[in-house]
Amino acid sequence: MTIVAMPILIPFALAISLLVFRTPKTCRWVGPLGSLAIFVVSLALFFRLKTSGILTLNVGGWEAPFGIVLVVDYLSALMLMVSSLILIAVSLFSIRFLPDDFPLPRFYFFFFTLTMGMNGAFTTGDVFNLYVWFEVMLISSFVLITMGKKKEQLEGGIKYLALNLLGSLLFLAGLGLLYGKTGTLNMAHLAEILKNDGQALLMNTSSILFFVAFGIKAAVFPLFFWLPSSYHTPNIAITSLFAGLLTKVGVYTLIRFFTLFFVHDQQFWHNLLLIVAGLTMVTGGMAAASYYETRRILSYHIISQIGYMIMGLGIFTPLAIAGAVFFTLHNMIAKTGAFIASGMIAKTKGSFHLKEVGGLYKQNPLLAVLFIVPAFALAGVPPLSGFFAKFMLIKAGIESGSYIITTVALLTSLLTLYSMIKIWNEAFLKKQPENHENQESIKLNWADYVPLAILATASVLMGIFAATVFTYTMEAANQLIEPAIYIDMVLRNRTP
Amino acid sequence: MEVVLAILVGILYTAGVYMLLRRSILKFIIGIIFMGNATNLLVFLSAGLIHGSPAFVDGTTTNSAQLADPLPQALVLTAIVIGLGMVVFILALKYKFFEVTGTDDLDQLKQTDSQK
Fold first, then answer.
1. CA atoms of A244 and A42, how far apart (whole Å)
2. Which of A12, A202, A296, A390 lies 20 to 30 angstroms, CA to CA, from B12?
3. How far apart are CA A42 and CA A60, in angstroms?
4. Which of B81, B95, B112, B115 is the best substitution to test chain A (most A C-beta atoms within 10 A)?
5. Which of A152, A160, A165 would you mutate first to test chain B, the one with the most B CBs within 10 A?
6. Are the CB atoms for A234 and A241 separated by under 8 Å?
7. H/E run at residue A58
8. Mean pLDDT in consecutive groups of 10 residues from the start of chain A, 496 residues
């Protein structure tokens, strides 16, 4: 089924086409339309998946487990769909918000190679192939984060690069050890071999290397330090792109690895995941509360929210995994939306710093409404998407008796609400500060509102049709917890 | 031979970690190179070494234990190429950073973390 490879091939073709047509004018068309094409393909994949079950493709005709296999199950399909929605929003946003002297063709080239790496990571069923897609994604993000060559960008770039390179090395080392122990790198084959593996202690040497490597990518406590020191340095369009996508790929791989084949020694791993989740939530939330720069608040806030996703993985009941998936999908949309909103505030007011802006509610009520949707979704106010995501996680936490993490999650929600209300109060409600009175404010064009409107609508719809989304995330969780179908589909190309 | 290479991997990791913890950015990059090479060797060793036999089936050897495993060799080739690209990028970034700030000291990298 060639359609399985489409989410990788389309961005590749688009990136190549941008090498040929390198005028900014064509880029303005290629960027959003290309993202739309990826979105359409992801939708098609999703509907194909609904009718015919897990989709697989043996690349190059080599049978699994010998060749590389691409697999799309519910988790991959949902991630593909939501990430391509974000691509549409960010590609529209970057047309309007990148400065005029910004090299647009180069930006979109790396935008699409990043997409290719990300979609590859979502669809691959082979551990080494995953490593390669991670590197594709990483090198594109390195270029994007330093694009513009400002001093703080280079500094942030070095910090971002240092920890992520280290993570890649640990990933590769873990992969080597895993191959030495099992003789395979196909995920389904690994799952089959490790299912009845008695030597849990031996496997832990590999799984901890993977955990640290993906922990760095996902920015969990205490490995998150690269994120807040680099995410506020590049242009806001690039930050929005990273905020919605990069860390979530790390979360995706953690969910994939720790449900499919690292299922030995469950007590140790689930406790570790829960402790890490709790600390990630609290440190991220507290740090966010102490800043007055919107991008920094939101950067720390990404970390805080990663904790919820890991919490779902740590509780490890079908409802909890479904909650984690729901939360990830919701967070990708709402987080990107919040960053885009902060970019719009900065464009109208000329500053990201909350002490220097104000009075936006009177000046621009539409922006206020569009900001409140992702902000309240993040805080978990019903009927927006975040409420249902948190509700599922907390219900799963109480049902499984994990009271400590549930309490931490509930209290962290208050910290989130505090950060969001702080931005709301400072930027929208309070009067423009007098010492920054004479800052010029730019009126936004209608086209500037489109990307945020798309994401806000998506967030509202995800809340209104929560039951439908819930069914699909539950389906994804069932596939993850009971990997027999996945294994059979990949290795023997049939359902059991 | 495996023991010797395993010790070499250990030495390279030690040297790499030591260099990573130095204050200079250039030494940090050297540390990354050391660790990258250690990891490549580790992956290469993961299937065990088989002396003097090629990594493909020649039709005469019937015992699979006497054939070298080609997969780690392929993996390591890919990893070396990727590692080279990464090192080239980080060196270019370091050069650019040095041009702009004139410093190689990691302790000077405080700007993006400071409370503002």
1. 17
2. A202
3. 22
4. B112
5. A165
6. no
7. strand A55-58
8. 88 92 85 94 93 87 85 94 94 88 89 95 94 94 88 88 93 92 90 81 89 94 90 91 92 93 87 94 92 91 94 93 95 94 88 84 88 91 89 93 92 92 89 70 81 93 92 92 88 67
Record: contact B97-A155, CB cut-off 8 A: yes
**Strand duo A55-58 + A69-72: pairing:** antiparallel
**CA-closest candidate to residue A306, choices A375, A401, A221:** A221
Contact A344, A93 (CB under 8 A): no
CA distance A3 to A81: 14
Whether A172 and B35 lie within 8 Å, measured CB to CB = no
Residue A293: its chain B contacts at CB < 8 A?
116
CATH number of B2-50+62-113: 1.10.287.3510
Least Cα separation, residue A153 to chain B (angstroms)? 9
Angle at A266 between CA A264 and CA A270, to 5 degrees: 135
Predicted TM-score of the model (pTM): 0.94
Q: Do A159 and B112 touch (CB under 8 A)?
A: yes
Nearest CA in chain A to B25: A158
Residue A69 · residue A56 · CB < 8 Å: yes
How many Å from the N-terminal Cα to the C-terminal Cα in chain B?
56
Q: Which residues share a beta bridge with A148?
A: none
Q: Measuring CA to CA, how many Å separate A306 from each of A128, A332, A469? A: 25, 11, 20
Domain ranges of chain A: 265-464
Given a contact cutoff of 8 angstroms between Cβ atoms, the answer to whether A341 and A93 are in contact is no
